From TrEMBL:
It comes from the Bacteria. This is Endonuclease/exonuclease/phosphatase family metal-dependent hydrolase. GO terms for cellular component: membrane. PANTHER family: CALCOFLUOR WHITE HYPERSENSITIVE PROTEIN PRECURSOR (PTHR14859), ENDONUCLEASE_EXONUCLEASE_PHOSPHATASE DOMAIN-CONTAINING PROTEIN (PTHR14859:SF15). InterPro entries: Endo/exonu/phosph_ase_sf (IPR036691), Endo/exonuclease/phosphatase (IPR005135), GPI-anchor_lipid_remodeler (IPR051916). It comes from Marinobacter oulmenensis. One of its GO terms (molecular function) is exonuclease activity. Residues 41-269 form the Endonuclease/exonuclease/phosphatase domain. GO terms for biological process: GPI anchor biosynthetic process.
């Protein structure tokens, strides 16, 4: 288990030492095996703030800057959910600042959930005030993980790409958090489109701040054949879901065995889950 007290002390004693992201490494992480299906989850955790009403954006806004004693309770609840999945995309994590008690939330959730591999992408570094990050949790050892800064007028958005399986025909997972601006989304998805253009088996996961029909019909993703969740998969706001902003989009080579919005209201977004089966013949490549 992640050492809360030690990490808090490290952050207080050495407040100037800030890593630009972090990774658990590949030691003791199982290889990607020929499982028949993979359990995926994407979750915007809102840095562990439990939001259940619009007025909480005002009354609990201070928690975006300062620590709160119940934040670890929320993170532990989130970890309980994450423990049921194989690969998790996290958005709106804190990489270790005052508001999180100098805790890297990606690492904390990975260790609390018993998931051996984690990768933190630091997208907006505000020093001790905030460490805005994306996160990847994985039960399998990736071939490689790369991070990318997404284009936009206001910097601070990013994507993580993890490749699994066979080097010559990998399963490619892209974890992202897109901007609110539609113009920025166009540029960001154009960038993503170029990154995935040479791959057959692709999964896009994350908070995309747009509905699937817009993403697949009005952005550069229209040039792909990605399969979306049902239009009724509303994830925001968590207490009265009316918008489908969080997505898992997959190549048609990956069979969707199950997909759902998970009723787990501990953030202002609900998590999205999907089980995908690897394509026929792919298992024999291992």
């Amino acid at each position: 288990m992640y050492k809360r007290i030690r990490s808090r002390l490290d952050g207080i004693i050495n407040p100037g030492e800030r890593r630009r992201g972090g990774c658990s490494g590949s030691d003791h992480v199982p290889d990607f095996e020929p499982h028949r299906h993979i359990r995926l989850l994407t979750f915007n955790i809102q840095v562990g703030i439990n939001t259940s009403s619009y007025h909480h954006y005002l009354t609990r806004s201070w928690q975006h800057l300062l620590p709160h004693r119940r934040r670890f309770d929320t993170l532990d609840r989130i970890a309980g959910l994450l423990s049921q999945y194989d690969v998790v995309a996290l958005q709106e994590c804190d990489g270790g600042s005052l508001r999180s008690g100098y805790i890297n939330q990606v690492q904390y959730l990975a260790e609390a959930a018993g998931i051996p591999y984690w990768y933190q992408q630091l997208n907006r570094n505000l020093g001790q005030i905030a460490q805005h990050s994306n996160g990847l949790l994985s039960r399998f050892r990736p071939l490689d993980v790369t991070e990318h800064r997404l284009p936009g007028l206001i910097p601070g958005r990013g994507a993580i790409i993890a490749r699994y399986g066979a080097e010559d025909d990998p399963l490619v997972l892209v974890l992202m958090h897109l901007s609110l601006s539609k113009a920025a989304q166009q540029r960001q998805l154009g960038f993503i489109r170029e990154l995935i253009s040479d791959y057959r088996h692709v999964v896009l996961m994350g908070d995309m701040n747009a509905h699937a029909d817009q993403l697949l019909n009005e952005t550069p993703l229209k040039e792909t054949d990605l399969v979306p969740l049902p239009a009724s998969a509303h994830s925001f706001p968590s207490w009265r879901p009316g918008k489908a902003l969080d997505h898992i989009l997959v190549s048609p080579s990956l069979e969707i065995r199950r997909s759902e919005v998970v009723s787990y209201p501990v953030s202002d977004h609900l998590p999205i889950a999907m089980d995908v089966a690897l394509p026929k013949g792919y298992l024999e490549t291992f």
